[in-house]
Design goal:
The complex is a heterodimer of chains A (354) and B (519).
Chain A (H helix, E strand, L loop, with lengths): L1 H17 L1 H19 L4 H13 L4 H22 L8 H18 L4 H30 L3 H21 L31 H19 L1 H11 L1 H6 L4 H25 L15 H11 L4 H25 L4 H15 L6 H10 L1
Chain B lengths: L9 E10 L2 E11 L4 E5 L6 H8 L7 E6 L2 E3 L4 H6 L2 E4 L11 H6 L5 E2 L2 E2 L1 H15 L14 H14 L4 E5 L7 H16 L3 E6 L2 H7 L2 E6 L2 E7 L5 H9 L17 E10 L2 E9 L2 E6 L6 H9 L6 E6 L2 E2 L5 H8 E4 L3 H5 L6 H6 L8 E2 L2 E2 L1 H15 L15 H13 L5 E5 L7 H16 L3 E5 L3 H7 L2 E6 L2 E7 L5 H8 L16 H7 L1
Parallel strand pairs in B: 3-10, 3-11, 6-9, 9-10, 15-22, 15-23, 18-21, 21-22
Antiparallel strand pairs in B: 1-2, 1-4, 4-5, 7-8, 11-12, 13-14, 13-16, 16-17, 19-20, 23-24
Helix pairs in contact in B: 13-14, 14-15
The chains are: A mainly alpha (354), B alpha/beta (519).
């Protein structure tokens, strides 16, 4: 019995080592090192800068702040992806959530703490409704979700941009931004860091996603739909309804990220500040990397937040441009898409030796 | 026939292949003489496919040697195997549907002229090959438009065009009608007569007895019998395959029908014209017919997966003509679909998750919560009850053999205890031992007072199980027989569109265009 259990463990460990994810990450790091050597930099120093810059005392706050947005968007994209649906409209849903939260925060007559809650909910509702629109386009007009969600994203971003530049523009400012939210209308921060309760909200969302995925009947239906849509249809899962639900939840999550962005520093909606860092695409990458599995999505999001923040630090200390971390990200994705893995005999041989 | 030369066409010695957890081939020796039709038999999981993929260069053996035409061979890819004169027709054809027959046949070995594909030469080549081997097929037809039997010919022509001396056919008759299968065997015999060698991977006894020269039987990765077809019997082969005596083609005693459970009148949908039938409790109604005559469409419409455009369907006196699939299931319907992999299961999901489908909203969940422990316990229970061979509920369903996957599917649907069960092709691609088990399960389900509507392309299955037999032809139900009237000849005639029986209904040809749409 003991022996069998240890073989089980071995199988599991070699399974994890052989997983395409391990291979892709290692290959990315290795090829990245070759790039570094090629440009005359010291790869060890560069990677060290990435790690200390993102995980050291000076960097961890920044990593967690970035991680909040990356994880939020990764969840927004993972939720429909679990059923095989791809929501490419994260930018639009997030920005609408942000501008709605800003308007709510500026005009709500409620006391500040309640206004914060209201602004979060309003942002989520805006994102949800806009994503639902993309789902309805697929369900009723046959526009593929991939297309409808992506194309609907542009007008939403433009609308928010217009609002921030004209009707809602801060009087007297030269920047395309709204007025700052009233005092107290902000997510509380931890100590004097930039990390806010937004991180807690996003982590709670991840926990809720995990619970739904693993412990509920609808989570089961979502997973089965992702693995074989015809199978779930055969058993009576109604695809249109599921698409609408998943897109609404996805949009709400994206809207939440936008609202968190507005309710944290700089406490206002600044045109472009939500979309410029590319959270949507980094989030999509993380969700794809983890094949939308809840825990994997969290880990992958953290990994990319580390790369993003560490890349900046590396640029400062070693003069290696931060684009290298993007190269790294890209290599990881390419290898992952190729589903490469270590040959099984590397592990079998060792297992036989045991 | 040319006298067999000294070197056998294929000689495998001591082939051993281990996969994690299983010994797929254990020191297998196989000798196939030149010019013979050699049947390689065994149940699913016995190691036939592994052995053939080693021979064909798709997998490498851990130990053992391969000799083809007397020469030592170590194929790294199917390309190498083809170059050595081997050719394989896979169970799922590898053809381009949108290309013509000639284009498919010459693909990757095109006759060239000034560096371009010489289409005229390709067509000529196909005509010559087709005539030489009695494989008539129109070189200009689009492969996607051809019936399955002809597509198989295209596959064989492809191998002949590349000069294959030894042909490996994997379960070649799984998709064929009895008549198409007979034609195939005539072709194989003539190929063997010209000195080519045929290896037939199958588990169908009848065709092995009629069409092969010698038989090698595998069980659990080992050779358990080497037989000369003329000197053996179906019982002997079946016993070797399963390791015990099996009763073949049993005709089960009729059931005792009760009240009407399913009442269909004038049902019309894409591919089905005004079908009327009833199924009573404690009764199995079989639908016979050549594949593609509307059986699948009828069952899909009944299951709620295809819109009903006319007629009325009631289940236990409730009108379900336009009910959704979920509503129908809640009212008392379970369904075993024809395609286990694409429809009936999610192969990448675990055995436990596959067994939970449909139960996840009823017995396994409360207030929308689904406890993993409950899902596992449910899986263990069904695994035991239906004898599904799975090492654990957590393994992916894709790791199960075809027969075990089918047991999983049937077990899951039977466990609903629904008053009406729809079953399509319950034993297609399933081995003998499992067939018996599945038939027994269906009979027990009927005897427990449930109604069963069975669609099968296997006449022996319909005759063995059904209390009443309906025949579908071109989208209509054209004949109805009681159990004792339904002999193979009568059914075969009705399936081919003949109307010899008094019970037969006049057949009106369904618009060809619509048929093409359905296919």
């Amino acid at each position: 019995m003991n022996k069998r259990m240890s073989t089980d463990m071995n199988d599991r460990i070699s399974g994890a080592l052989r997983s395409p994810i391990t291979f892709s990450v290692l290959a990315g790091v290795l090829i990245g090192a070759l790039f570094l050597v090629g440009t005359g930099a010291d790869p060890i120093a560069a990677y060290e800068a990435v790690l200390t810059g993102s995980l050291g005392a000076d960097g961890i706050g920044s990593t967690l702040t970035t991680g909040t947005s990356v994880l939020g968007m990764a969840l927004a994209l993972a939720i429909p992806l679990r059923a095989g649906l791809i929501n490419l409209g994260g930018d639009g849903q997030m920005v609408l959530g942000g501008i709605t939260a800003a308007v709510t925060g500026l005009h709500s007559p409620l006391p500040a703490p309640l206004t914060v809650v209201l602004a979060l909910l309003a942002g989520m509702a805006a994102g949800a409704l806009y994503a639902a629109l993309a789902a309805l386009c697929e369900n009723h007009f046959g526009v593929p979700l991939l297309v409808s969600s992506l194309l609907l994203s542009y007008p939403a971003v433009s609308l928010a941009s217009y609002l921030a530049r004209y009707p809602l523009k801060e009087p007297g400012s030269s920047l395309p931004q709204t007025r700052a939210l009233p005092d107290g209308v902000a997510l509380p921060a931890f100590g004097d860091s930039t990390v806010t309760w937004g991180l807690v909200l996003v982590v709670l969302a991840a926990a809720a996603y995990w619970f739904t995925d693993q412990r509920t009947a609808i989570g089961y239906e979502i997973r089965m739909t992702g693995l074989n849509a015809r199978f779930s249809a055969y058993a009576g899962v109604e695809r249109r309804g599921l698409t609408l639900k998943l897109m609404s939840v996805s949009g709400a999550t994206a809207g939440l990220v936008g609202a968190i962005g507005v309710l944290s520093f700089p406490y206002r909606f600044v045109d472009g500040s939500l979309t410029a860092p590319g959270y949507t695409w980094t989030g999509l990458t993380a969700a794809l990397l983890a094949t939308a599995a809840p825990l994997g999505t969290v880990v992958a999001s953290f990994f990319f937040a580390v790369l993003q923040v560490g890349g900046l630090a590396m640029e400062r200390t070693t003069e290696v441009p931060r684009e290298l971390t993007q190269v790294l990200q890209a290599i990881v994705i390419v290898f992952l898409a190729a589903r490469l893995r270590f040959p099984s005999r590397w592990f079998n041989r060792r297992k036989e030796a045991v | 026939m040319t006298p067999p030369p000294a070197d056998p066409a294929v000689e495998l010695r001591g082939i051993t292949k281990r996969f994690p957890g299983t010994l797929a081939n254990d020191a297998v020796d196989l000798t196939v003489r030149r010019g013979e039709i050699h049947a390689l038999m065994g149940e699913n999981g016995a190691g036939k496919s592994t052995l053939m993929s080693i021979l064909y260069g798709m997998t490498r053996a851990d130990a053992g040697s391969v000799r083809v035409d007397g020469r030592e061979a170590d194929f790294a890819s199917p390309g190498d195997a083809m170059a050595a004169g081997l050719g394989m027709v896979h169970q799922s054809f590898k053809l381009f549907d949108s290309l013509s027959v000639a284009e498919n046949v010459v693909y990757a070995a095109e006759p060239r002229r000034f560096g371009l594909v010489d289409r005229a030469a390709a067509r000529r080549r196909v005509r010559v090959l087709a005539e030489e081997h009695g494989l008539a097929v129109d070189p200009d037809a689009r492969v996607g438009d051809l019936p399955v039997g002809l597509r198989q010919r295209v596959e064989i022509l492809k191998l002949l065009h590349r000069g294959a001396r030894t042909l490996i056919l994997d379960e070649p008759t799984a998709v064929l009608t009895p008549a198409e299968a007979d034609t195939l065997f005539a072709v194989l015999k003539s190929l063997a007569g010209q000195g080519r060698t045929v290896i037939l991977v199958t588990h169908k006894l009848r065709e092995v007895l009629e069409g092969s020269d010698r038989v090698t039987v595998l069980r659990d990765g080992r050779v358990v019998a080497r037989l000369v077809t003329a000197e053996t019997s179906a019982d002997e082969i079946a016993a070797a395959m399963t390791g015990r005596a099996v009763e073949l083609d049993r005709i089960h005693a009729p059931g005792t029908p009760g009240d009407v459970v399913l009442d269909v009148s004038g049902l019309t949908t894409d591919g089905v014209r005004e079908a009327s039938l009833t199924v009573r409790a404690g009764e199995i109604v079989g639908i016979a017919g050549v594949a593609g005559n509307g059986q699948s469409e009828l069952i899909e419409a009944l299951a709620g997966l295809r819109p009903t455009t006319g007629g009325r369907v009631s289940l236990l006196d409730a009108d379900i003509t336009h009910a959704s699939a979920t509503e129908r299931r809640l009212k008392g319907l379970a369904y075993v679909p024809e395609d286990r992999h694409a429809v009936g299961t999610a192969p990448a999901a675990s055995v436990a998750e596959n067994l939970a489908m449909g139960h996840h909203r009823t017995s396994l969940s409360s207030r929308g919560l689904l406890a993993p422990a409950g899902v596992r316990a449910h899986a263990r229970q069904l695994i035991d009850r239906f004898g599904i061979k799975a090492s654990a509920p957590e393994v992916p369903a894709s790791a199960l053999s075809g027969g075990n996957l089918q047991k999983l599917l049937i077990g899951r649907e039977l466990a609903h205890e629904a008053p009406l069960l729809l079953v399509e092709q319950p034993t297609r691609g399933v081995d003998i031992g499992a067939i018996q088990n599945i038939h027994d399960q269906l009979i027990a389900y009927r005897d427990a007072g449930h109604a069963v509507l069975l669609v099968s392309a296997e006449l022996s299955e319909i005759r063995g199980l059904a209390d009443r037999v309906l025949v579908m032809y071109e989208g209509r139900i054209t004949a109805s027989y009681d159990k004792d009237e339904a002999d193979e000849r009568t059914l075969g005639l009705a399936m081919a569109g003949g109307t010899s029986s008094g019970a037969a209904v006049t057949v009106e040809a369904v618009d060809r265009h619509e048929q093409a749409d359905v296919d």
